[in-house]
Amino acid sequence: MSHKLKVGELRETYITDEEIWRILTVVLSSKSVKSSTYKYALIKALIENLYMVNDNFELTYNQLAYSFTKIYWNLIVQHKLIHQNRGKTARVVTLIKETQTNHAIPDEMIFDKISDDLQIKLVSKIKSTMKENVYGALYGDTRGSFYSFDHRQEILRISPAVHGFMLNYQRLIVNLTNYHLAAMIEQLNEVPSINYLLGKVESIAKRSSLRPFERILLEYFSADCFYCCKPLTGITRETHVDHFIPWSFVQSDQIWNLVLSCNKCNTSKSDKLPKRDYLEFIIERNHELNDKKEDQVVTNWMENYKSKKMIMLYDYSIKNGFDTIWTPS
What we know:
Helices cover 52% and strands 8% of the residues. The protein is α+β, with helices and mostly antiparallel strands. Residues 212-267 form the HNH nuclease domain. It comes from Cytobacillus gottheilii.
């Protein structure tokens, strides 16, 4: 059985968009055997890390396990959606509930708020579960054409063609995956409606607070709005942290996509793309962050960042419908 595989080789060196759509449609449909919500969560974790691949299109199991754990923590602990499996309780549910109970963690605490040590321990346990039940299962459903994986090296390599496809159709894939994940959770849990669930599923990747990023940005850069350049002082101009490329497209919080902003610009910009001129500014800013080699936190946050990723992200967001361009008034 494919989910028992410890190594999966990429079987296709080239695959067309039409073939990828055909396979993805089957994966998301009832034709694919789904005893749990694991496959949907892995697709969401892959999308959240699309811009974190290295030059060989590789992601580490730790990167994917962190996103995977965050998805389930917020579904299970915050929203009490504990049925994620047909039949016996899913292993990921057991691990998360044990952690919550053993450490007396309240239901309202989202994953990013628990201690770093506890996060690392839980992610490590869930990484082991993913090796047993997740990577091989989705690999089998996609006929080995989406990615290769190696449990010993703990590396997943996305097919370059599939990576480009996911970038090109990211928003649509996210919406489709969220819908089908919500539909399965609705079948497994007593909930009011799928519309109720969609709101929960769509928000599970979002970090509760951007304060750690704000502290770093204020430490290394002047307290001015990135967009209008006005000082971030006084009650009327309180400091905000804004996703340069809208979060609803990026689906993750990366320091290289975050800027300091005043309240007026942040509110006005909302879910829009800033004028392309600002792309040069953020690339220059990120060069400065990359030079902070003495700061290990910043170095870790900037891992695998390259200027071309920022440009690619900007261009692909336009292709995905974020084509309303904003400039500060």
